[in-house]
Amino acid sequence: MKTVMITGAASGMGLSATKLFLSKNWNVMMADFNQEAGEKVAAQLAQKYSANQVVFQKTNVASAASVKALKEATTKAFGRVDSLVNNAGIFTKGALHEVAEDAWDRIMAVDVKSIFLTAKYFVPDMIAQKSGTIVNTASISGLTGDYNMAAYNAAKGAVVNLVRAMALDYGKYNIRVNNVAPGPTNTPMFQANPPEVIKQFEAASPLGRLAEPEEIAKVIYFLASEDSNAITGQNIPVSTGFEIYSGQPVQK
């Protein structure tokens, strides 16, 4: 049985990925900063699957000590890790001059530094076993620019290029690294927007809707599994087409 470690696993896309990996008979180490939600969900999933198949660890992905403890807990619970899903992330609004310094530092730590830390503590074992997959949650906001989202664009843009460097460095160890790049997704966080804002987003999609967390999870699983053995260093948009429009007006 293979093992995956998923950050941001207690809700949204991370929770959908957790459920999908469990349904595919993987062990799952759930990592999340929200201890109450994580423990509750893990207990529910343990009843459906097995307490030996799903474990929760409260984790601050921006802390080296916390990620090191996560690695140790994962090894203790499952012996090895076959896949890392770096899904934890945060968002902040504002033009660059409007972003507070601590908000800038926080988004860079959670969205970018976290990938460095999981690589630092988990990848050496993957190198030793000469196999593994890493899937990072980037964003179409790392592939394009957005109004009033400078810090988020910068953080996700870093993740978009980081995947290429990681794929180059780790390919010789049979470790593949890819990104899923979601667009606006129907998560609890997004649903906190006013209904009129959600409708505007839906109207902006060529498909007329948002992506669902389960749809993102399916691509995460694909990239983590053997079905994608020839794919590495890629950013795969799962966005209902938000990033394909050039912005030019309709020509009559």
From TrEMBL:
Protein's GO biological process: bile acid metabolic process
Alphabetical keyword list: Oxidoreductase
GO molecular function: oxidoreductase activity
Domain of life according to the entry: Bacteria
PROSITE patterns: ADH_SHORT (PS00061)
Family stated for the protein in its record: Belongs to the short-chain dehydrogenases/reductases (SDR) family.
Record's protein name: Short chain dehydrogenase
Organism this protein belongs to: Liquorilactobacillus satsumensis DSM 16230 = JCM 12392
